[in-house]
Specification:
binds ligand GMT, six-stranded parallel beta sheet, seven-stranded parallel beta sheet, 13 strands, 15 helices, Rossmann fold, alpha/beta
């Protein structure tokens, strides 16, 4: 198949999922065309002869306060789909991609080309931004007019049905991880670069938005730090970072809490890690928790959204109500101070992650594409 993929090319989970999916599909012989405003971060140039990237340019016109990205995207989509004879268009994240996809479909229909749209809902496009009254009618319309709709967790599907008036079937296709690729990475890792031998390494990865509850991460670490030698690796960039850095300074923990910024070396960092923290207020899935588990890193998370579908209580880690930092700190301490239990959770985390292996998921998308293509032929 010739598949066009639209996503956010940044460090967000939805962009990572879209990119990894495109790479996996190309390995199965499909021709993949990424269409977005920048080359996706996890897509290496010339990665595979079947992978192509088409940039969307939005000319800066001084008359406009807001530059019309949807217009530029849908025009580019029409151009690429027509020229390359794309079979199916897969958009990740409803806003504004599903909306631009619908316009694309209509413009192409006008010239006699039928293109099916598959929309994947990722989380904040539904639970946060999408349900805002300013966007809700457009998001509802775009979901209802997609040929196939998928959500990355059962929890997100339920949120979508609760928040919007949806009359299209939503299929749950969970996020995934390339476990084989992780197993192929060179080990053991050089953790002495980051911490002393006796220090436990705790990691948090996110886009530091308020809903990630960065202050809870620091509060949990502060409690742990009083009980055992440890270090915290904070990976990512975002609006809460400035407060987090100030808080770390106020606590005098600058040499124990390290801010690594956005990183392309997530595999290395997770390889060094003993525990992963994700106390989010909202999380439709929690891809970073899955990545940690795939590296054998147990997870202490909140029980928000789809996290309970990923992190299995008492097996791959522990969950606690949002904001219950005492419970999260206590569970973290019990795991990190009991070597036997920690080793067991490491193995179990890997086992749990293997349920989300890429091989199980790519086939589901292929079937959805085939079905969407068949549906528009009649
Ligand atoms: O979590 C974010 O802020 C980024 C956001 C995104 O669009 O990339 O993540 C969402 O999609 C990820 C991939 O499906 C999920 O793993 C995240 O749980 C989801 N975030 C939220 O629901 C808050």
């Amino acid at each position: 198949m010739k598949i066009a993929i639209v996503c956010y090319p940044t460090f967000g989970g939805s962009g990572v999922v879209a990119t990894e999916l495109g790479i996996a599909l190309s390995a199965k012989g499909h021709e993949i065309h990424f269409i977005t405003y920048r080359q996706p971060v996890r897509l290496e140039a010339l990665q595979h002869p079947l992978i192509h990237f088409h940039e969307v340019n939005v000319p800066d016109y001084p008359l406009f306060k807001y530059q019309p990205y949807e217009l530029a995207l849908s025009s580019r989509l029409v151009d690429v789909i027509k020229t390359i004879q794309i079979d199916v268009l897969h958009v990740h994240y409803a806003i504004p991609h599903a909306y631009a996809a619908y316009m694309t479909k209509m413009m192409l229909l006008d010239i006699g080309i039928k293109i099916p749209i598959v929309t994947t809902l990722h989380g904040t496009d539904i639970t946060l931004v999408g349900s805002h009254p300013f966007y809700k009618p457009a998001v509802t319309f775009s979901i209802n007019h997609s040929d196939r709709v998928t959500a990355v967790s059962q929890s997100l599907k339920e949120d979508t049905l609760r928040l919007f008036d949806i009359h299209t079937k939503i299929e749950v296709v969970p996020n995934f991880i390339d476990t084989e690729k992780i197993n192929r990475l060179g080990k053991p890792c050089e953790r002495s670069l980051l911490a002393q031998k006796e220090e436990k390494i705790i990691t948090h990865i996110s886009n530091f938005r308020p809903l990630k509850r960065i202050m809870d991460v620091i509060a949990i670490f502060e409690r742990l730090h009083k009980e055992l030698p440890c270090k915290l690796m904070m990976v990512g960039e975002g609006p809460e970072k400035i407060n987090a850095v100030a808080q770390v300074k106020a606590l005098g923990l600058e040499d124990k809490i390290i801010f690594l910024g956005n990183s392309n070396e997530i595999d290395k960092i997770l390889c060094y890690s003993d525990l992963f923290l994700l106390p989010s207020e909202k999380e439709s899935f929690g891809l970073s928790a899955l990545e940690a588990m795939a590296h054998g890193v147990p997870v202490i998370s909140s029980n928000a959204g789809g996290l309970a579908e990923v992190n299995k209580e008492g097996f791959s880690g522990y969950l606690a109500p949002v904001g219950d930092i005492e419970k999260m700190a206590q569970k973290a301490k019990s795991l990190l101070t009991d070597e036997e239990q920690h080793a067991q959770f490491r193995t179990q985390a890997k086992k749990q992650a293997s349920l989300f292996s890429i091989e199980n998921v790519v086939g589901k998308y292929e079937a959805i594409y085939a079905d969407a293509i068949a549906s528009i032929r009649f």
